[in-house]
Specification:
heterodimer, A: alpha+beta, four-stranded antiparallel beta sheet, two-stranded antiparallel sheet, 20 helices, 14 strands, globular, B: mainly beta, 22-stranded antiparallel barrel, five-stranded mixed beta sheet
Chain lengths: 621, 1129
């Protein structure tokens, strides 16, 4: 028995010892990039910066362009209005990205690690340039929050887990827009000197920082209660714009090509986000895929519409249209009066007045259900075509920005009249796939081959800022300063004429008063900046200015433009008669603006519930 | 080979069982046996024994003989003094001689009947001989329910002690019987049967296993046990019930089969699997033939290869498998060889159709409805009268069609077929089992563009080197699964295609006049067309395993074990994304979408080794002790590569044919490891009191080096009260023949929820992150913060249960209550507190988080017979509920809101408004609190409850609604029948309440408009129809600020159901027709059906309660009919 026991124990011991080789647990990751790899060279650090640029700039482009445009009456969505334009928002709404701390952390990492690795793979100049880019990106992230909510949580370092101790991260928001913009502009100012003067397309440089500064300072000034401070920021805006102009950018002679495949690297562009077709397909680009109609010859034939399409097997338009420009917007593009040669509003030209009989009642040919939408109607006399009268001799930007009746597009004769081939009801009823207004966006639509069709690879570029925009920023600052008794509004008129003549190919305009100068400027900015994520923010600034900038309302008053319902045009098939009607489909006509609260959107209440220091809630929410 | 007899020829039975059975033998049996050594005793004549025992009892000697051989002894202690001390020293002796020396000088006589040896004394032997001489006999064959002969069955003349026992061929002969006598057939583990002799001279009997099957061998973690000895919550599934069931994989076949197992289907389709849950947990761990395998291997397992399935439900039984066992374990053993050659072939063919699809509106009905809605809102009609007429009459079918999209895309039935060949055989020394299965499944799609083909192979060979006590098993098993699914611009799977089949309006065209696929996005006919692309996937697995058991010579009861397996897995995919050309009415081709090809290939290997020992011994006859200890380790490595070319110009589905511009590729490698020490100690006293304890010292490479190991204990105890003397009368009266109490407590270590290498810092690379100067450049981003403090957390589970048998073992059952709590979840504190400014989540740490799950499960079974009609009826149910006791990932602000919080709440659906029905009139609208954001409300709109009573309905009234989305109780009710050659079974399976939230199309809503697809959707609110199924219809769902379609409990539907899950009827041809054909040992035909009918409230929304999507965006659940043929040679 004793022997057995020995065998027993020996066997167990041997078995378990042999069995136990625990190195199966010594596993390692096969690919890993540690901190030293990323920050130890300019190339790898740049890769981190590039990733951050991508996250920050996406806040300015793509869906942000189309969405914010549809929150004004520049554009309507064919599936209906949204709660935003109806003022049906509540304090839970989260607009503007409060809590975009992940991006802020990236910026702070760049700022801190670039400094830390100076002399350790990064030269002093490289380190400074990286820090400058980090600061600019931080400013641009916070600007997205400042212009929506006015306030944000300022984080200027890479926080560590240790910082969470004792509720250390229950950080407060900035208290005022002044405080917010002070942080943002300080970051930009700190960045400017170390940024390169020139860069490759897609990179940040001095021009980018200054261009943004000219606009951010303007937005800051609009919200600034203190007159002296306001003035200082307006001057900073002018100064930044001047520095941009000095950098040698020039206005593009062919306006439309700045936004499509013809001149993606136009001298006018200061900063754009580029996409290439090796990893981009059309459906990823909202201002491309979602502004293209969808119909075909079979539908045209069934519904008695035409002319039939001649290209692509009768199916040239196969997009997913949501957004379309409104008649309200079209109204802004001047026509050259045949008699006087002057640029005037389309329905104030002599060719219009002499040929069109205007009526304020609905024409008999309007359908019963739509008669109530009619605002005014007209019938053309003689052999004239109403489309010619309305659309000929317009501001060049009109042709570069829109598709309209009797125009040519994708090698097709476009007809948006009743029973036309791109008429709003070509597909039967109103709704998906067709424009509600009988206009279509063209600005920014690439000539993607073979067609704009989901899945089709395409290059693209989103223009974030450009010289035209900066010039207009300067014009606004000049006007504002002029109203405060500093400088002369004529400088602003001259700036407006630069874009008006170069881009619009219109004769120079004149303005005899500050009021006229404002009118000229506001119209100029609106037509120049369509689909560039601008109009909504400009309206807020102009509302804050009040007076000339907002139909005489007092500063901070109701913004009329945000309550005006969108309109469409309906032209008879013989192009003899038309009416302008209110877009009611999907409740698009319901528009409201509550001036007691809408200048600043709410800080999402759910976030305040989590961290009371984010409060108090913005007024009115 | 039938496991639940506790004894089968040639099968080694653990000694305690054998002893027990021997003790049960009655005096009558002894009388009936004769000393004659019967024919067919070659085993007795060839088998030799080596025994050297000093001063041992006769009983011990007999046991030793049983251990060394396949003999077993039957005797009654009344006639044979087995406690007599003897010494025996034989070497290389035949059994006869060994017995002669053992019983020398006593009156004990013996008879050897093949491997059965009956001991009796000379007095009784003479009686027996006398009876034999007077024989005027009745004879017959006793078989089991599979028709196999049953040896060793006691046949007694009722009221006497006269009788006999069946021989190896299951035959018996009884002499000296009278017509008025009744024969009583009894066998351990079988129901006793009585038959009046009458004028019969031949009585054949089919024995039925008793419901309780106490000596059924049950596979448990790293070993086996019996039902009698189990102290944990383990239930088993009868693999016979998985046979011939027309399911595409084993997961479907398990629903409703046993207590504790919850199986929920989620839609149908090629290659779909059911979700398996043990007591409401997540995916369980699967162990096949002793090794933990990837879950995928279980899903691909051929149901015909399964020999047993045990469900380890409590931590005490599962814990030995360490981390990953927290959700319970399925322990599966596969078939092994028997001696003798047996070849089997099965063929199964089935067809299936959707269980429940709603009736869709025709294009005319849709058009009429459009106009009705628009006229209600004083809008221009959408369709003119002429157009309506065209829809109604179909006079212009290409401009005003009425397309039945289901008919355009699908056929009535989807076919499936399965061939299975098995071969088993061998000798005492070597035994083998081989099986091969080919399975082919097609879909409902009209074109055969969606299919699955699977091939399974299994080979097992067992060698017993008896002289040195070594048993070796080698096995190889593998499968190859190939699937094909259509792939196009519009669809990459069922979600899209079935969504499109439902959503395409009847007014849209499927084909043009020439029968070409019509143009337009999302045309499902294009999606399923063979002209479109495909997604082909293959999954290959090959595992080789080796098992060695060595009964250590000279150390009684010690067995050393070594086992290892090596698994190779390969996956391949080829995605050819192409969209069939579509044409307009004139035959012009539509837009051509870009074509791309993506190849993916992955391979992996994993090996596991187990080294350890088992020791079992009975001390002083009453103390049974067994111990197991082993070390197990697993290592795995995987690699994958993929490559893609885009925008094909030459439409050849080969990678080289694509443009090399913009080609892409990628890939990676990874490894993982696990290790654990397992120990288990079991003890029982007189098979009455049981105790067991186990430990696992578990290592996981998910944790930093110094935090890798954790120790987890478990323990359990059982008490068979019915073995106590005071219970005797309850037993005799058949009130409770068996009653056992069980209790267990155990801990399972958990490491789930931890990312790999989260204890190391890292940055992530995006190869194509940004476009600079017209080129794509890579970008970096920061990874998650390093989590240095992560380590094991655990689930602690308690189980209390009892097993019983009553009414002469005919009724039996088990009931278990369980309570589990998982504590110490690893979580980032950012999930709870406000740390947002950090910009990243805090590292994971162990939290106070605790969740609980508790419930009960039970199973009941009744077995009975009437002559040759045998039957079994039963049912099982599993009920559980769960809650988060201490939150670990819920934001503090939410936790503080009693109406919203998740912590301390048992099952609910989610958050939403509470509906109060429809507004009845404008006063009602004016006088009721209005939802923030709702406008223009009218009668027929939904009214919501102001839960907090502040006069507004806003985010704070958005509270918990509904009940759980996963049913809290599941049950099965089954029956099995056999009569002569006929057999059949049924299974009803059901689930109690669960809430399903209707999808937007079924709700009748879509962005921008209403969607009215089905006839039942016409039941909407109007002033004349106020108790409608749907609120008022509006031309635009957002007309009232989306009031009616915001999340609320109005759209919750109870998905409880009961369905006839399975029904089978079969006939064994061998019972009559082929009786004389000796080369066929078995041949039967089986007709079966699955999901034959369903009762559920969900069907009023045309939803199957087990569908995959409440918008019907999934392949429908199938009703299946099938025919199987099984032959054995």
């Amino acid at each position: 028995m004793k022997k057995n026991k020995i065998i027993f124990l020996a066997l167990i011991t041997v078995t378990l010892i042999f069995g136990s080789c625990e190195d199966v647990l010594d596993t390692k990751p096969f690919t890993s990039f540690d901190e030293a790899t990323v920050w130890g060279s300019k190339e790898t650090a740049d890769a981190f910066v590039n990733g951050t640029i991508s996250s920050v700039m996406n806040g300015y482009v793509n869906g942000n362009q189309t969405n914010w445009e549809a929150r004004t009456n520049n554009s309507v969505h064919n599936q209906g209005g949204n709660s935003f334009v109806r003022e049906e928002l509540n304090r839970d709404a989260g607009e503007g990205g409060l809590g975009n701390f992940g991006t802020i952390r990236k910026c702070n990492l760049i700022i801190e690690k670039a400094a830390e690795y100076m002399g350790n793979g990064l030269s002093e100049a490289q380190s400074k340039e990286l820090v400058a880019k980090g600061k600019l990106l931080r400013a641009l992230t916070y600007y997205q929050q400042a212009r929506t909510m006015g306030r944000f949580v300022w984080v200027d370092k890479v926080l560590e887990p240790a910082d969470t101790i004792n509720a250390g991260l229950l950080m407060p928001t900035t208290k005022t827009t002044t405080e917010s913009y002070t942080y943002i502009l300080a970051d930009i100012d700190a960045a400017i000197s170390d940024l390169p003067e020139t860069s490759k397309p897609g990179e940040l440089d001095k021009g980018t920082a200054l261009a943004f500064k000219s606009e951010i300072a303007l937005q800051a000034a609009a919200y600034e209660p203190d007159a002296a401070k306001k003035k200082a920021w307006l001057e900073a805006s002018v100064d930044a714009a001047n520095k941009v102009i000095a950098l040698g950018y020039s206005l593009g002679g062919d306006f439309g090509s700045i936004f499509n495949e013809v001149s993606p690297y136009s001298d006018e562009i200061i900063f754009a986000v580029y996409r290439v077709k090796s990893n981009t397909t059309t459906e990823a680009i909202a201002p491309l895929q979602n502004v293209m109609p969808n119909t075909n010859n079979d539908i045209l034939i069934r519904n008695g519409c035409g002319p039939l399409f001649t290209t692509n097997g009768g199916q040239p338009f196969i997009g997913w249209m949501w957004w379309a420009p409104t008649q309200n917007l079209i109204d802004q593009y001047d026509v050259i009066d045949e008699e006087t040669g002057k640029a005037v509003k389309w329905n104030e030209s002599s060719q219009y007045i002499n040929n069109v009989q205007v009526s304020n009642t609905a024409p008999a040919w309007a359908t019963e259900g739509e008669k109530g939408q009619v605002r005014f109607a007209g019938t053309v006399s003689g052999s004239n075509s109403i489309s010619d009268i309305m659309y000929k001799n317009r501001d060049k930007r009109f042709y570069d920005s829109f598709v309209y009746d009797n125009s040519r597009w994708w090698n097709e004769d476009i007809r948006t009249t009743v029973n036309g081939n791109l008429w709003r009801k070509t597909n039967g009823g109103l709704g998906p796939h067709m424009s509600l207004t009988n206009y279509i966006f063209k600005k920014g639509v690439y000539n993607t081959q073979p067609r704009i069709l989901a899945g089709t690879p395409t290059d693209y570029h989103f223009v974030v800022t450009r010289l035209g925009r900066v010039l207009l920023n300067k014009a606004e600052a000049v006007l504002w300063l002029a109203g405060m008794g500093q400088g002369n509004f004529s400088e602003a008129v001259a700036i407006c004429n630069q874009t008006r003549t170069t881009h619009g190919k219109l004769p120079e305009a004149t303005a005899g008063s500050l009021e006229d100068a404002w009118k000229l400027y506001m119209k100029e900015r609106r037509v120049e900046m369509v689909m560039e994520n601008d109009y909504y923010w400009s309206l807020l600034r102009w509302g804050k200015h009040g007076g000339f900038a907002n139909n005489g309302a007092s500063p901070g008053g109701k913004i009329n433009e945000l309550t005006i319902p969108p309109t469409y045009i309906e032209i008879t098939n013989d192009r003899k008669s038309f009416y302008v009607g209110t877009v009611t489909h999907g409740g698009n006509d319901v528009r409201a603006f509550d001036e007691t609260r809408r200048y600043l959107l709410p800080i999402p209440q759910g976030q305040i519930n989590r961290n009371p220091n984010l409060g108090p809630q913005n007024p009115g929410w | 080979m039938k496991k639940n007899y506790g004894f089968v020829w040639g099968y080694k039975i653990p000694r305690p069982l054998k002893l027990l059975r021997i003790m049960k033998l009655t005096i009558g049996l002894m009388l009936g046996t004769v000393i004659t050594v019967l024919a067919g005793n070659t085993y007795a004549q060839t088998k030799t024994l080596d025994i050297a025992m000093e001063n041992a009892t006769v009983k011990e000697v007999l046991s030793r003989i049983e251990d060394q051989s396949e003999f077993y002894f039957m005797y009654s202690e009344k006639f044979v003094d087995v406690n007599r001390k003897v010494s025996l020293n034989v070497k290389n002796e035949k059994i006869k001689n060994a017995l002669t020396s053992l019983f020398e000088g006593t009156d004990v006589e013996y008879s050897i009947n093949d491997r059965i040896i009956v001991l009796t004394n000379s007095d009784n032997a003479n009686n027996a001989i006398n009876m034999v001489l007077q024989q005027k006999s009745v004879s017959g064959t006793v078989t089991d329910s599979d028709g196999l002969p049953l040896p060793g069955v006691t046949v007694l003349i009722k009221g006497t002690t006269n009788g006999t026992v069946t021989n190896t061929d299951g035959e018996y002969t009884l002499s000296n019987v009278k017509p008025e006598n009744t024969l009583v057939f009894s066998f351990v583990g079988m129901l006793t049967q009585e038959v009046e002799i009458g004028n019969q001279t031949s009585i054949n009997i089919t024995m039925v296993a008793s419901a309780i099957g106490l000596d059924e061998v049950v596979a448990i973690g790293y070993g086996t046990s019996t039902k009698r000895s189990l102290t944990n919550a383990v239930s088993t599934i009868d693999p016979d019930r998985l046979k011939n069931v027309p399911v595409n994989n084993i997961t479907y076949a398990l629903a409703g089969r046993t207590a504790g197992l919850i199986v929920t289907q989620s839609g149908g389709g090629v290659g779909k699997t059911s979700r398996i849950s043990i007591r409401g947990g997540e995916t369980p761990l699967v162990v096949i033939d002793g090794f933990i395998v990837p879950y995928q291997d279980f899903e691909n397992l051929s149901p015909d290869d399964v020999a047993s399935i045990s469900v380890l439900k409590d931590a005490s039984s599962a814990a030995v498998y360490g981390a990953r066992a927290g959700n319970g374990v399925l322990v599966i053993t596969t078939k092994k060889g028997n001696s003798g050659l047996q070849v089997g072939y099965s063929y199964n063919t089935s067809i299936s159709e959707p269980t429940n699809l709603g009736t869709k509106l025709s294009s005319y009905e849709r058009a009429m409805f459009d106009n009705t809605v628009r006229s209600t809102y004083k809008m221009d009609p959408r369709w003119t009268n002429e157009e309506l007429e065209k829809y109604r009459t179909g006079s212009d079918p290409y401009n005003y069609p009425n397309t039945d999209w289901l008919a355009a895309t699908t056929r009535d039935f989807a076919p499936e077929s399965k061939h299975t060949v098995t071969m088993s055989g061998g000798s005492d020394i070597n035994k083998f089992f081989i099986s091969f299965q080919a399975y082919d499944q097609q879909s409902l799609y009209k074109e055969n563009t969606n299919w699955l083909k699977r091939y399974n192979l299994r080979m097992s060979e067992t060698s017993e080197l008896k002289k040195i006590g070594l048993t070796l098993n080698f096995s190889v098993d593998g499968y190859l699964t190939n699937t094909r699914a259509p792939l196009s611009q519009y669809s990459s799977g069922y979600w899209q295609t079935w969504g499109h089949i439902q959503n395409q309006g009847p007014g849209a065209l499927a084909y043009n006049r020439d029968g070409q696929i019509y143009v337009g996005y999302d045309n499902p006919v294009a999606e399923i067309s063979p002209e479109s692309g495909y997604n082909k996937n293959s999954s290959k697995m090959l595992t080789g395993a080796f098992n060695a058991d060595w009964k250590v010579y000279g150390v009684d009861g010690l067995k050393l074990k070594f086992a290892a397996n090596y698994r190779i897995g390969e996956s391949g995919s080829k995605a050819w994304q192409k969209t069939a050309t579509q044409y307009d009415l004139e035959g012009n081709p539509g837009p051509s979408f870009p074509v791309s090809l993506t190849y993916g290939s992955g391979s992996n290997y994993q090996y596991t080794t187990q080294t350890g020992f088992e020791y079992s011994k009975i001390f002083k006859e009453v103390h049974s002790l067994s111990a197991t200890a082993l070390y197990e380790q697993t290592y795995g490595f995987n690699e994958d590569v993929w490559l893609r070319r885009k925008n094909y110009i030459f439409l050849i589905d080969q990678i080289g044919a694509g443009p090399s511009q913009d080609m892409e590729n990628g890939g990676g490698e990874g490894e993982y490891g696990r290790a654990g020490y397992v120990g288990r100690l079991s003890y029982n006293y007189k098979q009455k009191y049981f105790a067991e304890g186990s430990i696992r010292y578990d290592g996981s490479d998910l944790f930093p080096e110094d935090k890798r190991w954790g120790t987890f204990f478990s323990g359990s105890a059982g008490y068979i009260i019915s073995e106590e003397n005071f219970w005797a009368s309850l037993k005799e009266k058949n009130i409770l023949n068996y009653f056992k109490l069980r209790a267990s407590y155990g801990q399972v270590g958990l490491d789930s929820g931890v990312g790999r290498f989260s204890y190391l810092s890292s940055y992530q690379l995006n190869e194509r992150g940004y476009t600079l100067n017209g080129n794509l450049v890579p970008t970096f981003s920061e990874g998650a913060l390093v989590s240095p403090d992560i380590t094991w957390y655990s689930t602690n589970s308690t189980d209390i249960g009892f097993d019983f048998a009553s009414l002469d073992d005919r009724l039996s059952g088990s009931v278990d209550y369980f309570y589990m709590e998982t504590v110490g979840y690893l979580t980032s504190p950012s999930n709870v507190g406000y740390t947002d400014p950090l910009g990243v989540s805090l590292p994971q740490v162990k939290s106070e988080g605790e969740s609980r799950r508790a419930g009960f499960d039970f199973a009941l079974s009744w077995k009975g017979s009437a002559g040759e009609f045998t039957y079994q009826l039963g049912g099982n149910m599993t009920h559980f509920n769960s809650l988060v006791a201490v939150a670990w990932n819920e934001d503090l602000a939410n936790q503080k809101d009693p109406l919203k919080r998740n912590v301390q709440q048992t099952g609910y659906w989610g958050q939403g408004y509470v509906n109060k029905g429809y507004y009845t009139n404008s006063d009602d609208v004016l006088n009721s609190p209005r939802r923030d954001g709702s406008s223009d409300l009218v009668a027929g709109d939904l009214k919501y409850q102001d839960v907090n009573g502040d006069g507004f309905i806003d985010g704070s009234d958005f509270v918990r609604i509904g009940s759980n989305g996963f049913p809290r109780a599941n049950y099965g009710i089954f029956g099995n029948f056999e009569y002569k050659g006929f057999f059949g079974n049924f299974l009803f399976q059901g689930a109690t309440s669960r809430d399903m939230y209707l999808g937007d199309v079924v709700r009748g809503q879509s962005t921008g408009g209403y969607t009215t697809v089905y006839d039942y959707q016409l039941d909407y609110w109007t002033p004349d129809n106020r108790d409608a199924l749907y609120p008022r219809i509006a031309p635009n769902s957002s007309i009232n600020g989306n009031n009616n379609y915001t999340t609320s409990d109005f759209w919750l539907v109870d998905g409880k159901y009961i369905r006839l899950k399975s029904l089978q009827v079969g006939y064994e041809l061998k019972s009559k027709l082929l009786k004389k054909v000796d080369w066929i040992s078995k041949m039967n035909l089986v007709l079966s059906g699955q999901n034959l009918f369903t009762i559920s409230p969900a069907t009023k929304y045309s939803l199957d309660p087990e569908n995959g999507d409440t918008n019907n965006y999934d392949y429908p659940v199938q009703r299946t009919y099938s025919l199987s043929v099984n032959v054995e040679f």
